[in-house]
Design goal:
The protein has 2 domains: 300 residues, Zn peptidases (Aminopeptidase, 3-Layer(aba) Sandwich), CATH 3.40.630.10; 127 residues, 2-Layer Sandwich (Alpha-Beta Plaits). The protein is built from 15 helices and 22 strands. The protein is globular, with a radius of gyration of 23 Å. Bound molecules: ligand L7UNP4BN and zinc ion (ZN) (2 copies). Ligand L7UNP4BN binds next to helix 4 and strand 13.
Length: 516
């Protein structure tokens, strides 16, 4: 555990306003499980059912992708709720006791609205079985056809060229993996196979926007809904390439910022006022250009000094990963990597911090040549956090630097730096029975041993689960490195969806058979 405590964000000021007290990781007490022998007969029946019911399972994914559950946007609030209801219906049909639970309110577009509810469910309550908790998210990133999608992003489209790719927003992040668990449950039900573990599940609808409210929910339910959980599995990341399955034992964190510059109280004609005023956009572009160099170097003083040194063991783990530069070039559709060194590239993605500029709200971006001076603009950027770059120490450096640089501009506009959401980095020890079970399941289903990776993306709530529940968390991805999560033409290969379903079933059976 590298950083302790989660910071609660302020939406109106540039400062972090509260910090949770330090919590030590709790260790689950040892419970004498009845040894449940692994049965290859059970899983082969399940695999046969999954193979024979592929179109039904794809249909389930199509229904889910058809609900545009984009979080953090007032226009999609009803769709996010509809997606939660869809999960409840599906889970109930599968024999899961499922319900939605409120997690509070937040501000959207200046209005106070309910946060998307969490969907929780459980099936099985046998004291002789281990209890597995699974987490996933049912919200998705925004997507518009005009962003460059080949097909409507909210209509699951099977590649007409026959590659088996299933295109649609959320196909890989994270509706496909979430439904993979439901598919595995259905396969057990339909083949009359007893579930080898008790299963608890929690699916949230705010992951893409900072998981607001979820930390409090976990804390308040730790001795109620979450009581008795032995270990946890999350499938919400991706392989590194298109052919090597992996298990993931670390995540980068994320701090998401806005630089808000405001000047006049209305948008202005650039002919009438250009040359006479301090322009907010000019200030903003100047500040944003000072955050990161074109070589990817973070220019904020002090950030590099905080990074924990790379150990020999870490270096060796990165060197052991199967990865070629071609994998990343294919995944991004171009040869624009910062280096051609594979280990440096992997470290750049997973072990080092990175700063990305995302966009400017309030800027003119439509077609045409509007000669406007926007009166206020918000520049958005994020920093991926790594051990020992935490939410707070990084934010202190960011705020000081941006304010100092703004002062140097001599502008009469107003500048505010806001941390909109933050999530700490997370890393765990993969020498745990849950990782052993996932390793064996990968060998059985994919016919090869997994690589051990750290994810460059963030699942901010992972550290909270680890700290509050004190359980091991194994990240077991389903999708490939070229799936295009958050991008245009996001997809999940049919084989990954189908084999991923088998992987989850196999993992649960291995988990039951592992000595705790
Ligand atoms: C890895 C996971 N599937 C994911 O995409 N996480 C997001 C989380 C996030 C945080 N702010 C906005 N989204 C990510 O890593 O960007
Ligand atoms: Zn995700
Ligand atoms: Zn995502």
């Amino acid at each position: 555990m590298f950083t302790l405590g989660r910071l609660i964000r302020s939406t109106s000021t540039s400062n972090i306003i509260a910090k949770r007290p330090l919590r030590l990781q709790r260790v689950s007490f040892v419970r004498p499980f009845t040894h449940i022998p692994y049965s290859s007969m059970a899983t082969s029946k399940i695999n046969k059912w999954v193979d024979e019911n592929q179109s039904h399972l794809i249909d389930r994914l199509a229904k889910a992708v058809g609900i545009p559950s984009v979080s953090g946007n007032i226009a999609y609030i009803k769709d996010v709720e509809r997606m939660a209801e869809f999960l409840i219906e599906q889970l109930t049909e599968l024999g899961v006791k499922a319900e939605t639970r409120p997690v509070g309110k937040h501000q959207l577009d200046g209005k106070e609205v309910d946060l998307p509810p969490v969907v929780i469910g459980h099936i099985g309550n046998d004291p002789n079985k281990k209890t597995l908790l699974i987490y996933g998210h049912y919200d998705v990133q925004p997507a518009l056809k005009e962003d460059g999608w080949k097909f409507d992003p909210f209509t699951l489209t099977v590649d007409p060229e026959g590659s088996g790719k299933l295109y649609g927003r959320g196909s890989t992040d994270d509706k496909g993996p979430v439904l993979g668990w439901l598919n595995a449950l259905e396969a057990h039900k339909e083949t009359g196979t007893e579930l080898p573990v008790n299963l608890k599940m929690i699916f949230e609808g705010m992951e893409e926007n900072g998981s607001d409210g979820l930390d409090k929910f976990i804390e308040s339910e730790k001795d109620k809904f979450f009581a008795g959980v032995d270990c946890m599995c999350i499938s919400d990341n991706y392989w590194l390439d298109t052919k090597t399955p992996c298990l993931t034992y670390g995540l980068r964190g994320i701090n998401y910022y806005e630089i808000r510059i405001s000047g006049p109280d209305r948008d202005l004609h650039s002919g009438a006022f250009g040359g006479a005023i301090h322009e907010p956009m000019t200030d903003l572009i100047s500040l944003m250009s000072k955050l990161v160099s074109p070589q990817g170097e973070i220019l904020i003083p002090g950030v590099k000094d905080l990074i924990a040194p790379v150990t020999k063991d870490e270096q060796e783990k990165f060197e052991a990963i199967h990865f070629e530069m071609k994998d990343i070039h294919d995944a991004i559709g171009g040869d624009v990597t910062l280096t051609n060194d594979t280990v440096k590239t992997l470290m750049g993605r997973m072990r080092n911090p990175s700063l990305s500029l995302h966009g400017i709200e309030g800027a003119f971006s439509a077609v045409g040549s509007k000669t406007v001076i926007p009166c206020s603009v918000k520049g958005k950027f994020s920093i991926r956090l790594v051990p020992n770059l935490g939410i707070k120490n990084t934010t202190d450096l960011v705020i000081k630097y941006v304010n100092d640089e703004f002062m140097k501009l001599g502008s009469k506009n107003k500048c505010q730096v806001v941390l909109t959401h933050g999530g700490e980095p997370w890393i765990t020890d993969p020498n745990h029975y849950s990782f052993r079970a996932a390793h064996k399941a990968t060998e059985t289903v994919w016919g090869q041993a997994p690589d051990y990776t750290r994810e460059g993306g963030s699942i901010p709530i992972t550290l909270e689960f680890a700290n509050i529940l004190g359980v091991n968390i194994c990240l077991l991805p389903v999708g490939r490195g070229d799936d295009g999560a958050h991008s245009t033409n996001e997809k999940l290969d049919t084989s990954n969806y189908i084999q991923g379903t088998k992987l989850f079933a196999e993992y649960m059976h291995n988990l039951a058979a592992e000595q705790a």
